[in-house]
């Protein structure tokens, strides 16, 4: 029999109204013998109805989600809602406080930690709580992502191509409602440990985004995120009001040829900016050796035509880093 | 009498042709008793004529300069040149290798280390070598900057408002030749220790840039940098060919009201993107407390009208950080 | 079938007399390919009779236990003993050497690592050795604790309220014999992974203490520890001589209302000192925001009446830290 | 000619009323190119009259001063004051935020950094600002100290034995007014770099304290600090109301024999608690070797009779640490 | 059912000719969201025939193996080969890049990580790939070791005494072919987690070496390694040409008395150099206390006669470190 | 007027007999408010006569000196001596404890810190004490060196070619007396900050050694060191008994061509071992790129003929490291 979760919430998920509280996770350590990790949570409930579970900072250095969700938690009123909205604006809260992708406590990548363990690391304990306590309550699961400090993305909303086509159709309809400039049908090559997979395997409607990156947020991408999440809640009948639709361009990443990985260390130069057209065989990036002047850069050529959907962000690059992603 | 510099160059500044070499600075340390810092340098000389001294990575996390200068060093041929071009694409080379603003060796901020010291820290020794060996050789001094990992700027070329109006006019003419989208007349409030000041006090024509930031470079900003530096060399008569002029918009930062500093820690939200218009009294940024949901963000208002010229880049902000810069 | 423990003792547990030796645990690492952790151990045996297993520094920053036990190991003579005394004065020896609660090698909290694993981390290997080799030898298990660097406690000896009332009665009798100023009947909310639980589940008489804290020891608390452990051994018939009884005050922590956790970061102020009376609703602590002057502190009120039994020790406090414990 | 201080205050020292603001010190670094250190400051002024300069956290791990001064800044009203009270509750603010004695930025010990340098380290820049801007404004200078994380003291208020006996008498009278349980006449063997010396050399009345230690504060020592600082301001005629006198015991540290330093590493045991009587030749402390059981501890004997005024706090001790201080 | 390995090779093991490529292991982390570890691999194949799997840097600070294997990979031509040679010159590549025994990513000791886990740490994922993908392809497995930064060894080639005497005989014949100055018949006391064991349990011929140490390589030991590996491949019929035999001296480590562990911290002095004769009872090493002058060193005596086969390398030693190994 | 040194010795330099004590240097820090660095010192004096000042661990990772000098301090008897022997076996004691070249406190390289400063860093304070207190007492100054963790040397004793030929002759005679296998006449290119220079400028006879390296010591090099220092003291008439002469080979490093520096990062391979003959143009070292297999190594050729006197020790090398030294 699995152990109970060590996490105790200070909110009551079945109470009507707005509650601002914490998921308290005991965490004993050198600088606090009886310390805890306190993950902010907000629950807005108004009677029976569907439940949406909204999360940001699954990776701690991605900001459009937290900027949309702290604001939503602050402004959402029960009278606007039918059902329940559970908001965890910073899912991997220790990582979010540190401004890093993974947790500074255990280097845990939240999105590779599912289904988690009640007696595992801090990150695994949080995953386990979502797996066994929060996901089962949800009908709709929305998880915000952006590129973080080391990647930059075109702004898109996305859902997975799924074996259950009814489930898939619901998810793509929600993506359409989000109305990001781009929308993506994702094939996951390696879905082990993902929050996405955990939700989808329970039959939930799961939607996610990539809305920029570089460890920052722009005014424009935050506007996309805020309008999008309201649209999705309206589309689901949880928030009153009509969806504010704007046109979106659907993208696809059909094969492993979309991804190009560095085989040298050096200074990274992208030859195209995000959203620009790329054609097969074109030099789309270069890696410059920095140890001396005068040597030729390594030239990297596109393996397929399309548009530049994502790129390595920092000025330096290491062997094995993903340099660019071409989508169609 | 000052001590001689411990730095020895492996290039001969008075020899015609192209040389790729190093400035070798002995640096004894735990992991290399007889180690050295080897700073790449390229000299392209073709007979008598003016000397341009070109530098990038004065701050190690700024990439448009190095991307332009490693390329220039690789491609410049003596036949194109009248005089001498000295290229140090990564001035604070230890910082550049680490991808950080300051040197990982001594935390030295190169642009606050002038005039340097021959028996000081590694950063001070490099500054001293520029002060006593390289600057005196130069007629034109060009130092590339961008915002680095923690700031983002509109792309502009800039020179200082100077007491010597003839010197100032030469600098502004070179800025005009660079042809960045924006051009800036800078007033420096605190010029102590700057490379700029060191060059200007010797009567040199000194020009600099801010060309983006965030610790990355875009294809577009790199194109601006490469075209700009060629233009400046052509304008100076060192490189053959005509200046490729494009229109530029001149900006000014007239007072301390241009700069706004954070008085809280939290998650940073800019309400305008770079280049957007801003008017006095408008909320241009907000700081969100992250410890719990439900609290109001702190609102920051513009102290003057203009356009947003620079902003804090990372998603989190700390008390005392510069949040935004408004220019006119 | 479980693997054998990698730990080899240099003492013989069945030999009469005094032996000072080590538990040697191979630990290969970057700074010692064939290194080991050497945990000091002392065995004093005199014929047949009960066995007491005495431990300190289960948490490495707690000193009353090690100060009592290194002294006991140095001075105990076989002639005074009937049976066997096994003394491990620093159970989590790597943590003890570092002066930290958890092990610097693996961040292991010894008291959450039971039953351990023979092929786990260093801390888990030590736990496994106690679980499978030392605990089975013992009749009486005494584990010294204090508050460590981040908590401070009233001095008390304690045992758990247990389902087996005969086992419980033996433990409380031993607590009574210890004769600390205070005595505690503990209810453990979350007993997973504790040494206490491991011992109790084997049916052993398990006793523990909290004797101060702050990462130090006072002359007075060391006297309590030394007199107490001698009393317990006399009470158990292992050490000759009569128990030196002094009056003790029994305490109880009846519910979760005893514990108060911080919901803000800041500077911590306790409004009562240890042992002072506290009544429900009284402000027992305040948290001061340190970023600027002039703001009101957050006031924390007692949820029940009693006396202050424990408190957060350092001057600064973080969200989630236990601030104070009220006992009755 | 000395450079101007880079610090700019956001308060006006000559304006009547209460102001809460900052000393802003630009501090460019890897994680904030245009960052600053923002040191909280409060000025309460009511017309002409003497000026008191009150400081805490000269060492960042000492809490009685900050607890008294943030509270005083929050509650002091101009109507109660004649003259000016300048409050900097956390003088070495970076150290205070980190909870460490010295600054995490430059390891600067504020009390060894005077007179400071405007172009030095962050700690030296703060010292320089006090030296050239704040001390000259003051008549009375009060600097709170406690033992910090590694020492523990009897609570006393103190002033130096000075060559100028009139200045000394004023200081001792203020110490008497403070009414701590103990009062100390200090001889400073090595006064180089101290804030005390900087103030005294300008002829100011300088008073200080030691009020406990261990990196914490007790309710009792905070009460002593709050009552004491009010008393000193009343005694100086700056705060209205009468001094609340309580008896104090005067102490003296006549020679180097008061201080005993460790000559071994190991576990520290004090044989007396603070305030207990000590006589020459008595074993007042022991150092236990921890690497194995069975060895004799090193015994340390008092070199003079008196009472134990201070002690090493942590459970472990290193060669060269001050173990105990005997006063008379 | 076990999960598939996350590692993808860029070489085709069944293709004839020379291929230089990578084992790509996805590794998401703070400084590269979509990063990978890229382990260099070379495959030289010429038709059917036996397969040799050659590895270096199982421990990352051992250099004879990588120096032999990068060279072999660079120079081996298909025409010289019958069958397949798979070369992974730096098995624990992250450790090798860092110059450390264990991986800087997870502190994994590769030689204690077998059989590995596809969803474990980076080191465990590499072990799993060898266990399930590479070892099954091999007939002959050769793994280079030296002493690394903390041990120094006589140069020897070695194989284990095995229960299957036919397998053992093949291994010893290959050792003989290697022709190192010394050859060793090894008894492994604790074989859990070793690569050796993984290979031997599959019935492979497994050979290894110790060829010096100290975290360096000498010209002489590199010559031994290069000649030896060519000899072994010739002996196996994979490389054409005759074995270049030179005399070797066979050694044995018959019991635990061969190994001596330090029981003190201090400065280490060996009284014999590698290869010198040692007799039982002789002082073979001393540990000097460094805290003060004048104290006697601890003397360590040999427990058996033989020659000094290995020693602790660094000048300082810690309790628990292996000081010396005597072989016969 | 210079400030007095903060260092206080616990020995009396003018007292006859053997004294073991400390140089106590107050060092306040986060983990010890009133801490000190305690540098072991031994003084052996027997009436009037010359004074020898003997030091080891000027660089903290060099062991032949400390191994010779702790032993000498332990065994030297006043009756054997005429005059005074001052022994500081670990001059940069904090570095020596850490096993690093430079001080872990301030990264100070002792041999570049002279003449030091009484109010500087810990390393500068030690240098100042030698400069102003110890060197003036000495007639003969002997400073042991070896290669440390990153270099390895042929064993030699050395003195500088000096302008004062009488002083030089005395030094070379002492070198001859030392009787190392090799002897060196050194030309110092950059003598700034060296202990050697400080001593020579006072007219002292200064001798030094290089006796191996790699951060270890061999039995043979320790024997050379012990016999050598006794010989030098006998030669100086301080120790009774006759010099035990053995043949030595004199070497010279005539120009900068002796030293070769790496211009690539990679894996280092020496093509000759220490003491082997080298001729101009021969490949004496190679640097292998480790990122992929198949690439050619960089070949480094000797710039002059001679023998290999020193080499880079670790298996990896960085651009700027000294690779090898050829002597004649």
UniProtKB/TrEMBL annotation, chains A, B, C, D, E, F:
<dbReference type="InterPro" id="IPR055438">
    <property type="entry name" value="AstE_AspA_cat"/>
</dbReference>
<dbReference type="InterPro" id="IPR043795">
    <property type="entry name" value="N-alpha-Ac-DABA-like"/>
</dbReference>
<keyword id="KW-0378">Hydrolase</keyword>
<dbReference type="InterPro" id="IPR053138">
    <property type="entry name" value="N-alpha-Ac-DABA_deacetylase"/>
</dbReference>
<dbReference type="GO" id="GO:0046872">
    <property type="term" value="F:metal ion binding"/>
</dbReference>
<dbReference type="Pfam" id="PF24827">
    <property type="entry name" value="AstE_AspA_cat"/>
</dbReference>
<dbReference type="InterPro" id="IPR014336">
    <property type="entry name" value="DoeB"/>
</dbReference>
<dbReference type="GO" id="GO:0016788">
    <property type="term" value="F:hydrolase activity, acting on ester bonds"/>
</dbReference>
<protein>
    <submittedName>
        <fullName>Deacylase</fullName>
    </submittedName>
</protein>
<keyword id="KW-0479">Metal-binding</keyword>
<keyword id="KW-0862">Zinc</keyword>
<dbReference type="GO" id="GO:0016811">
    <property type="term" value="F:hydrolase activity, acting on carbon-nitrogen (but not peptide) bonds, in linear amides"/>
</dbReference>
<feature type="domain" description="Succinylglutamate desuccinylase/Aspartoacylase catalytic">
    <location>
        <begin position="49"/>
        <end position="235"/>
    </location>
</feature>
């Amino acid at each position: 029999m699995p152990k109970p979760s060590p996490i105790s919430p200070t909110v009551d998920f079945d109470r009507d109204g707005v509650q601002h509280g914490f998921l308290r996770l005991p965490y004993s350590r050198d600088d606090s013998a009886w310390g805890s990790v306190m993950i902010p949570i907000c629950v807005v409930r108004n009677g029976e109805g569907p439940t949406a579970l909204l999360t940001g900072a699954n990776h701690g250095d991605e900001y459009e989600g937290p900027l949309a969700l702290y604001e939503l938690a602050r402004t959402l009123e029960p009278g606007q809602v039918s059902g329940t909205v559970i908001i965890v604006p910073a899912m991997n809260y220790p990582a979010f406080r540190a401004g890093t992708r993974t947790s500074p406590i255990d280097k845990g990548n939240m999105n590779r930690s599912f289904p988690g363990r009640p007696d595992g690391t801090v990150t695994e304990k949080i995953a386990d709580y979502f797996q066994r306590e929060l996901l089962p309550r949800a009908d709709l699961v929305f998880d915000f992502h952006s590129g973080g400090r080391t990647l930059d993305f075109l702004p898109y909303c996305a859902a997975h191509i799924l074996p259950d086509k009814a489930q898939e159709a619901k998810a793509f309809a929600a993506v359409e409602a989000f109305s990001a400039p781009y929308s993506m049908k994702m094939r996951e090559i390696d879905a082990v440990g993902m929050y996405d997979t955990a939700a989808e395997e329970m039959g939930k409607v799961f939607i996610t985004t990539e809305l920029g990156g570089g460890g920052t947020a722009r005014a424009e991408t935050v506007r996309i995120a805020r309008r999008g999440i309201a649209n999705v809640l309206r589309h689901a009948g949880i928030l009153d009001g009509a969806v504010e639709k704007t046109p979106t361009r659907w993208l696809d990443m059909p094969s492993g040829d979309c991804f190009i990985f560095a085989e040298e260390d050096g200074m990274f130069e992208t030859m195209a900016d995000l959203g620009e057209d790329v054609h097969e065989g074109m030099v789309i990036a270069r890696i410059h050796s920095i140890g001396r002047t005068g040597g030729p850069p390594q030239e990297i050529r596109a393996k397929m035509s399309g548009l530049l959907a994502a790129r390595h962000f920092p000025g330096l690059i290491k062997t094995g880093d993903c340099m660019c992603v071409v989508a169609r």
